[in-house]
From TrEMBL:
Superkingdom as given in the UniProt entry: Bacteria
SMART domains recorded: PKS_ER
Sequence ranges assigned to domain Enoyl reductase (ER) in this UniProt record: 9-306
InterPro entries the record matches: ADH-like_N, ER, GroES-like_sf, Lipid_raft_assoc_Zn_ADH, NAD(P)-bd_dom_sf
Name of the protein described by the UniProt record: Zinc-binding dehydrogenase
Pfam families, sorted: ADH_N (PF08240), ADH_zinc_N_2 (PF13602)
Amino acid sequence: MRALLIDRTAPARFRLGEVQDPDPAPHQALVRVTATSFNYGEIKHGLEDAPDGTVLGWDAAGVVARPAADGSGPAAGTPVTTLALGGAWAELRAVDTDLIGTVPEGADLGAASTVPVAGATALRALHRAGPVLGRRVLVTGATGGTGRYAVQLARRGGAHVTASTGDPARHGDSLRALGAHEVVEGPEALTSPVDAVIDLVGGPQLVAAHQRLAEGGTLVAVGHAPDLRESFPAGAFFGDGGRHDRTIATFYLPACHGLARDLTWLSAELAAGALDPQITWRGPWTRAAEPAEALLDRRLHGKAVLEIA
């Protein structure tokens, strides 16, 4: 099969090449990939750390070519979206059936390919934050793929949503269109405490957002830039006054149970038009270097979708 392979001699550090077809385990389905969506983490760290010849990629949507031998998961011919820690940048992918969500017949599989990491991370972060109906929620790093899903889902959940971005003048209108009630340049700009934070940045922004948590509030730490450290001031974790009962929570998406259900629900909402995948680059995988470079340069906001011919 064809795949995008790590090759540090290539200009983009990957190239189209040939590799062996995957051999699924009994609990895995073989999926013929139609589209994959890029994530900053896999581009940044995968291209730096993975050995030559590796097939990267977390998100892929397509059609089940061979169902799992143990009888679990969807049948052959079912359109699906899939999550794993590699193998998405290829024509065929073997995936654990508990990491496969079904997609409505006739839905856009390119859009569905944006669901696994960005959509499911946003959904699980909001679950971890607790009920948001009538509460104030801050989403930092709101212009990224996960941030845009988080803004939409928090608004759907009944929250007053504040979106944080480094350039409110540029991104404010689009974030408000997704459901943000207000757009600010960093947590420091908040004028009142918030009940929950979905932090997709880490570093000083995480610290600043934690300081603005209301009593009983939860900060869910999702994004972590490797060159940014969290240094909390003395007394940051005191429980006096309005700082009583505040929580910092983390989670690891591939370890979460019930992801097949989440991926299926998100795909249905997307197909119904209730969610916007915010695709800002879409094209054939022969042009994969373009969105990869734009992501690394922080010039691409939203999601990039590669169509597998």
